[in-house]
Design a protein that fits this description.
The protein contains 24 helices and no strands. It folds into three domains: about 140 residues, no CATH class; about 210 residues, no CATH class; about 270 residues, no CATH class. The protein is globular and about 115 Å long. Helix 13 packs antiparallel against helix 14, helix 16 packs parallel to helix 18 and helix 20 crosses helix 23. By secondary structure, the protein is an all-alpha fold.
Length: about 775
């Protein structure tokens, strides 16, 4: 609107401003000098009007110095001039807002936008679609201005500086250590990038399919096209981030070739951040999700918690947490993309919150989104089970669907146990048994097409969830002996499986920094439950489970392991406990080499020192009793046994490939689809031979056996089966450090734990030693 076209009615509020307008100053200059009361009316106070000094009535403010005040009318005139100048500036800047600048050209400043040629301006607004794009860009620009002050005595808001943008704000808030300069990696040849892309699609994309596979290959084609103008910033971003995530997931040690290549690709992707990280677009949420995936593999440079929080807030702002109402004009492709992006954010947000024991970015009650993925039937009809109808080049989303279902279960019990209050439940175990039963059924119903590596990945998630649910929480601060026994067995299985997956070259799903935190928390919980229940756990007795209503789900069946011939329960469980502590320590050592956090292993060894001392003392007592019962120390069989026992202390951990099927060492059964009966099967099972090593309590002290208490048999895995439980029992060496393992499982405080003394051997750990407290 032109200033000449404004009528008198429009100008009426400016000509006769309200008289009762509050302002931050106490009095005008005349009343302040005369030391009389000033009512502060505008445009002149009552005292100045009464004495004919209305034109001289001025007030001080923070924009003009004392003695150089300007009147209210002059201030409004100055503001009109500024707004007119800003309006002309916005009109001249329209072409530069909607056009995407070249990567090699600098972004013109605000002053330079005055010199935009008229021809370019006329060509920009030619089409209707271009005008809509201009209007959208202007709306985004205006939304960044914030609240413009209209108070005459307040300081004007001149907008953000030229160096501020949404991308810079996100990267500044979510970055930790600065990326090394000069490490940007050139785009590799397409044949070299093909293997990295396939590795990402097979192991990461199957779990978090944040983009459509067809659109991704279109971005690859645009990026590698001879015409560089075909690729937009998002094409460069998604291709570079896929290469970065794949390279980082293949890294075995911080600083190796794969690690450096991942950093090089991330640096190349960040050069396009200004064109990708923009508020109000789904592609920006996709970009943040991919950056979160990389942060889980490189915790030194990016904070995954801040990134997934930014992605969640951007997702909620776009309304992706609810499906659009019926009748909304929207294509099926766009609707599927909305749903796909939401569930990817959901999976990462739940995983991050659980491992760092923080609140969710959004609750499940606000979610109204249908899952866009479906699971193929176990047996396809004969008419559809034809090779010509299958698409082997398209990744299946069945693993992503299984992971979403698990995250939904985890979100439910985490909210109920840790985020819904501090009131203790009187009868908590009917809820805990139902939760464990739901997770057991989930594992039984995972897709039949899941490969062994992904099945092992889900197996780790199941064991970790069992330990998390059964551990002390605000709702259940004191656990029952039966739950303590379950935690004891699940921790041993988790440590055994994790160590073998780390060493197994055939295990392809990436091990992230979250796995290191899970191992540390599991190890602490193992020490805590063992310290408070040393004798009951090592004696091997199964305590009675807490009484629940008959209609409640049955408690989980106790995992059982066959007792080696000639051994005793106490000695065997003592060796298993020592072996578990050593496995957890070795996992932390390997993860420390991978990510540079060596202090975690040192801290855990210090905390486990007192318990290891107790376990070794018990083991020496058991060995002394056995030696006293021998008829002669020179007996041939005794000599052989002593040699075997002494060599066990220095026996190295062997990988699954080195364990033959004929090995006589103890092997723990795997939680596979064939063995799931041991995790909650309520039906009876035949007795196995040799007998189970658990001794039941006397009938007079134990209630009648329930169906779920009947022990089930395990099948010995074949030599070629991957990820089967079992390692040769060895005795770890003593630790000279001392610590207190009596700490809660859920008191995890983030990347850094509590430490009274700074760790001089872990100089790369940027987290302050006392940043978090385990007892908080």
């Amino acid at each position: 609107m032109n200033i000449d076209e404004i009528d008198a009615a429009t100008l009426m509020p400016l000509e006769t401003p309200p008289l009762k307008v509050s302002r931050p100053v106490a009095a005008c200059s005349r009343c302040r000098n005369a030391k009389i009361k000033c009512d502060g009316k505008l445009p002149a106070c009552s005292s100045c009007e009464k004495n004919g000094r209305a034109a001289e009535c001025t007030s001080t403010n923070d924009q003009f110095a004392r003695g150089k005040e300007r009147s209210y009318v002059s201030t409004l005139e100055t503001r009109i001039d500024k707004l007119q100048a800003r309006l002309e500036e916005a009109k001249a800047r329209k072409p530069s807002v909607v056009s995407i600048p070249d990567d090699e050209t600098a972004v013109p400043s605000r002053r330079q936008s005055y010199n935009v040629p008229a021809l370019e301006h006329s060509s920009t607004g030619g089409s209707r679609a271009q005008r809509r794009k201009e209007a959208s860009a202007i709306d985004d620009l205006v939304s960044d201005f914030g609240f413009l002050s209209v108070n005459a005595t307040a300081r004007d808001f001149y907008g953000f500086t030229s160096a501020m943008s949404y991308a810079r704000l996100i990267l500044s808030a979510c970055s930790k250590d600065p990326l090394p300069s000069g490490t940007t990696k050139e785009l590799p040849p397409r044949y070299a990038a093909a293997s990295l892309i396939q590795h990402y699609l097979n192991n990461v994309f199957t779990l978090v399919p944040v983009f459509e596979e067809a659109s991704f290959y279109g971005s690859v084609d645009n990026t590698y096209a001879q015409d560089t103008r075909k690729a937009d910033p998002f094409d460069h971003w998604v291709v570079r981030m896929v290469l970065a995530i794949a390279s980082a997931s293949m890294s075995e040690q911080r600083g190796d070739q794969h690690y450096l290549e991942g950093i090089g690709h991330v640096c190349a992707a960040l050069s396009h951040a200004e064109g990708v990280l923009n508020p109000g677009s789904i592609s920006s949420v996709q970009a943040l999700v991919m950056l979160t995936e990389y942060a889980m593999l490189d915790p030194h440079h990016f904070d995954s918690w801040s990134l997934i929080g930014a992605a969640s807030r951007a997702m909620v702002d776009l309304g992706l947490h609810t499906d659009p109402p019926k009748g909304t004009p929207m294509t099926k492709g766009k609707l599927d993309l909305r749903r796909r992006v939401f569930w990817c954010v959901y999976v990462l947000d739940r995983s991050t919150s659980l491992v760092q024991t923080r609140a969710f970015s959004f609750n499940d009650d606000s979610v109204r989104v249908k899952i866009p993925f479906t699971k193929a039937p176990a047996v396809l009809p004969a008419s559809t089970n034809k090779p010509g109808l299958q698409k082997p080049w398209v990744q299946s989303h069945e693993q992503a669907l299984d992971l979403i279902h698990l995250r939904q279960i985890q979100s439910g019990w985490y909210t109920d146990l840790f985020q819904s209050g501090r009131t203790t439940w009187d009868e908590p175990y009917h809820y805990l048994w139902q939760t464990c039963e739901a997770m057991r059924k989930w594992f039984e119903n995972i897709s039949v097409t899941t490969n062994p590596s992904m099945r092992a990945f889900f197996e780790l998630e199941l064991l970790y969830s069992y330990i998390y649910v059964l551990s002390p929480s605000p709702r259940v601060p004191a656990i029952s002996p039966f739950a303590a026994k379950l935690i004891f067995e699940y921790c041993i299985r988790y440590a055994d499986l994790m160590l073998r997956l780390i060493d197994d070259a055939n295990y392809t799903p990436p091990l992230t920094f979250y796995d290191a935190m899970r191992v540390y928390m599991t190890g602490r919980q193992f020490l805590d439950v063992l310290q408070h229940n040393t004798d009951p756990l090592l004696n091997g007795h199964i305590p009675p489970h807490p009484e629940v209503k008959p209609t409640t789900a049955p408690p989980p069946a106790m995992p059982v392991v066959n007792l080696p011939p000639g051994d005793t329960l106490q000695r065997f469980n003592t060796i298993r406990s020592i072996h578990c502590v050593k496995q957890i320590s070795e996992c932390l050592a390997k993860f420390g080499m991978r990510w540079g956090y060596m202090s975690w292993n040192q801290r855990y060894q210090s905390e486990a020192a007192s318990m290891l001392e107790t376990l070794h003392l018990r083991l020496r007592e058991f060995d002394g009793i056995v030696a006293a019962r021998r008829p002669s120390m020179w007996h041939a069989s005794s000599s052989a046994s002593s040699v075997t026992s002494s060599s066990a202390a220095s026996q190295a951990y062997r990988s699954p490939q080195s364990l033959t099927s004929s090995s006589a060492v103890h092997r723990q059964p795997s939680i596979t689809a064939h063995h799931m009966a041991s995790f909650g099967d309520s039906g009876p099972a035949p007795q196995v031979t040799p007998p189970l090593y658990y001794h039941q309590q006397a009938p007079s002290q134990q209630p009648p056996m329930q169906p779920w208490e009947t022990q089930t048999s395990f099948f010995e895995p074949s030599g070629g089966q991957a990820f089967s439980f079992g390692q040769p029992v060895s005795q770890p060496g003593r630790s000279s450090a001392h610590g207190n393992p009596n700490l809660q499982f859920a008191n995890w405080g983030g990347y850094g734990g509590a430490s009274s003394v700074p760790d001089t051997l872990d100089e790369e750990n940027a987290v302050p030693p006392n940043a978090q407290s385990w007892n908080a």
